[in-house]
Structures are given as structure tokens and as C-alpha cells.
Amino acid sequence: MEFTTKIREQAIKAHSRIVLPEGTEERTLKAADYVMSEGIAELILLGNPSEIKALADKLSLKNLAKAKIIDPNNNSNKEKYVDLLMKIRGEKIESRQQAEKLVATPLYLATLLVKNGEADGEVAGAQNTTGDVLRPAFQIVKTLPGISVVSGAFFMLFENKNVGDYGMMVFADCAVHPNPTAAELAQIAVSTANTTKAIANMQPRVALLSFSTKGSAKHEMVDKVVEATALAQKMAPEFQFDGELQADAAIVPAIGSKKAPGSTIAGYANVLVFPTLEVGNIAYKLVERLAGAEAVGPVLQGMAAPINDLSRGCSVDDIINMVAITSLQAASKKA
Mind listing the pLDDT tens digit for each residue in 165-222? Predict the structure, then answer.
């Protein structure tokens, strides 16, 4: 079964509520119409109801009436969210007037809905920058307990089903944090293991990568990966982590057994954690372009509630898939 088909089917069973703050963006509305028609998630659309209805009529969308629509500029619950924002942000909010202005902003209202438990997750970015999407998320939803760093994972899908698990691997961090410390790298490894389990229902075998395997080179960058591996093993003993491993030792059994004898992961890793964002971003793009892999993501991980950022060049299918992924992330937090 194709990965995207599988996650959509799993999301139907999750019954998550996802807020889409870009409720008057055409691709978002087309995706929302499909999501509602298939029951992939319950949706909350933010935007002017008349504008949404006019766009729905123009695009011949028949299922948007099933979604809840909230107008940020004419919201009967505005004062409740103003109070919540002021409570969360404290002295960082200059005045109630400033809080009222922010609550009328769809990206802020969306995160407040998530924080208040009225939505299980958020998907945005079709018309907003990553910075604009993540700023209210960091300020309001914040990170998970014990996690200080947000990272981005890609599900890499290969035609060769012998790669990873049935043609799937997970790469991280490829999207967010430029140069993690050992402690932050350990958090990224644990977050990626959790993402792999929650979304792909795949038992993660996590390789923390370096240019060295088991002491073959000496350098402070290698030391960081060794320390991160030990920390990840302590943080999440229910998962398998190994490092430092070179890429070939992580994924080629013959090389793994030679370079890291006794390792249960070397040669069989299905999750690759890169030492820096630079390496991860370059690696996933090269694999996507040269190996013909499909990259699904980035899936943001480490937030206290799932908030995912789209590329502004995203397709309708990209939005549908990210709604399904966000739904599954939300369901895993309830479990």
C-alpha cells in the first residue's frame, strides 16, 4: 500500500481536529474539500465566511459546509482568546490592544485554538513564510517537556523496496536547526524515532551519522555524535540508537558488519539522523533528485502539539497529506 494512501486511511480512524488558518487560499480550500469528503479529519477554517463561500462556489467545492468556520475579525469568543494570550505571554504583551490585534491574526488565533484544546493540530504555510507560521507556535504552544529544539523530518520513499523498511527511510533534521549541540542532537534523534513510530507505524532503527564509524576518526564533531547517541539511548530506551556511523555503515549490511561488528543497527538503519542541518538538507535533496526518491515533509517535531509548515509552492495533495500526518501526530499524543 502506498505511504500516502496508508496515512490517509489511518487518519480517518484518528478523528483529529485540524485548524487551517489560511482558509481563503484556493489550494487550501480544495484540500479541505477533499479532506471533508473522505473524513480524513475534522476541519476548522479561519477566514471571512462570505469569502470562503464565494470561493467554494467558484471552485465547485461541495463539502466545505461540513467544516467549522471562524472569522478572526468577527469572533464572538475573541475576549476568551485575548485573555488566554495575555496569560501565556505575560509582560511580553504590551497592552490588551496589542493582544486583540494578534488574536485577529489567523496564525495566532489558530495556535490559540490548539493551545486551548479546541483543535488538535494546525497546518499552514501555503501563503505564509515559515517564520510567520512558527513564531506564534513557539510563543504559544511551545515545545514538549524535556525537548528544547524543534526539527524537521522527511519520509523518503524509494521505488526499491529493499531500501530501509519496504522502501521507506526517515531523514532528520533537514529543515530547522542549523547546528545542534550533542543534547539537541539527541532530542532530534528521539523526536524522529517517535515520529517514525507514530506516522509510519515502523519500528525505528536510528543511526546517528558522522564521517567516522566507531572511532575510525577523531574530531570534536565525531565526539558530538557519540555523546548524542548515549544521551538518546538514556532518553528513550524503548528505541534503538547507534552511532557514530558513516552512511554506508548505517545502510549496507556487509559494510556495517565489517565497520561496526556487533551493532544491531549498522547496515539496517531505517532512520538517519544527520549531525547538522547543512548535511541533512543537502542529503535529502541529493537522494530525492539522484535516486528518484519522493520526499514527504518536512514533518515538524518537538512541539507540544503538532503544527506543520507547508512550502508556499505546495500542491493540493501536499496539503492533504500534511493534514493526515498532523492528524496522526495528534492521535499519538492522545494515546
Answer: 999 999 999 999 999 999 999 999 999 999 999 999 999 999 999 999 999 999 999 9
CA 11 to chain centre: 15
CB burial of residue 297 (10 Å; 0-12, 13-18, 19+): buried
Residue with the three cell numbers 524537521? 152
Number of H helices, E strands in the chain: 13, 11
Domains and CATH numbers, the chain: 3-142+305-334 (3.40.50.10950), 151-295 (3.40.50.10750)
Q: 192: part of which helix (H) or strand (E)?
A: helix 182-200
Per the CB < 8 A criterion, the answer to whether 108 and 101 are in contact is no
**d(Cα 28, Cα 34) in Å, to the nearest integer?**
10
Q: Which one, of 123, 133, 150, lies nearest residue 330 by Cα?
A: 123
pTM comes to: 0.91
| Chain segment 276-310, per-residue pLDDT in tens | 999 999 999 999 999 999 999 899 999 999 999 99
